Amino acid sequence: MKNLFLNQLTEFVFIHFLAYLLGIAVIKYQIKVNYTRKINHFFVFFLPYLLKLFFPFKETLFTQIIISCVGLATLAIYLMPIRSNIRLVKNMFAAFDRPEDRPYTLKWLFTQYLFTYMVAVPLWLIFNKLGHTEAILIIILINAIGDGLAEPIGIAWGKHKYNVRAIFTKRTFSRSLEGSAVVFFVAIIVIYLFKSHFNQSQFIVALLLVPIISTLAEAKSPHTWDSPFIFLFTGIALLGVYQF
Predict the structure, then answer these.
(1) Most exposed of 88, 93, 137, 187 (fewest Cβ within 10 Å)?
(2) 23-51: pLDDT as tens digits
(3) pTM of the model
(4) Domain limits of the chain?
């Protein structure tokens, strides 16, 4: 329990310190929020693995629920009454407050986190029971790297646009085929890297199925809701693969 506490405390301090630095980069140096959001995105997914090297703890349903609750609770500091009165928090919020997302930035962030945890925790239980704990890491890598790079690459080189809807509003937002293609190719690479965890039939099916499903999940998900969709449908695809 002590290591879990130290793990979560360290993550909390680091993530928010990073958000402050990225927020300053947005405010003072006009760095695009689309880029700073994705930097934060990478650390949110990969920092827990690094911290477990220093503060290891046994993963159980209880620890997964605690981590989920802590992750959601930390967003409370970004509520309007707090960030409006505390400059430090306002600067941190600037790191992921895309102008086109206002006034729904925090709602979308919170609901995305909530539904990602609601999908990820049951998947962790299922894969853990099946003896395929690597499946969660496969999903995380596809989501963190694929989705993480999709937006900046789409902004820089995306020429073939398509629109998606968002919750709480009728507004539409654009994505690009180039950005979505990143998810596809990252998924192929990730499946190949985990080849040893599949038998021959499973590997072939995974290589044919997972990249397509992950890409469609990202492409069809509501604006800012990529993570829960990628987790859900990639998880279902992997469950199917393991049946071969």
Answers:
(1) 88
(2) 999 999 999 999 999 999 999 999 999 99
(3) 0.93
(4) 1-97, 105-244
